[in-house]
Amino acid sequence: MTPEEWLANFETKIADVREKAEEFRAGLEASGTTVASPDGTIRVGVAPNGSLTELQLTDSALTGKSGAKLAEEILKLARKAQRGAAVNVAAAFAPLGGDTEAMHMVTGYLPPEEPEEQVAPEPSRERRLWQHDEPETPPPPPVRRPPRPPRDDDDDFGDNTFLRRD
Prior knowledge:
166 residues
C-alpha cells in the first residue's frame, strides 16, 4: 500500500467516525422521552440522562385522587420515561459500540420495565351498599391464659451463694 492509499483509507475512516459521532450526538440529543398517563392528565418528560425535565398536571389530575395516589402515578410515569430514555440512548450508541464491552455496559444499566397494572373491577354499587348495611361483627375476645403460680427460686440453690460477702 502506498502512502497515498494509506492516507486516503485513513481519511475515509476518519470521515466515517465523524459521521457516526454526529449521528450519535443527534441521537443522544433526541433520546429524551415524554410519557403521559392513559387519561392524559399527567405528562412526565426526562432528559437522556433520566433527569426530570417536564411535569404537567391538568386540573382533573388533581381531583378525585389522594396525594399518595397522584405521587405514585407520577413516579410510575417517571420510571417509564427514564427507561424509554435509556433505551433511546442505547439505540443511539449502538452504531458506535456494536457488540462491545462498552455497549454491554450501556445496556446493562437499563432500568427494568414497569409491570402493567391489573385493574381490579370495582364492586357494583348494590354490592357496596349491601356490605355497608351489614352489621359489623365484633372480633372474638382475646384468649386469656390463667396466671402462673408464684415461683420461689431461693430454695433451689440453698443458702450457699458465692455472691455474699462474709
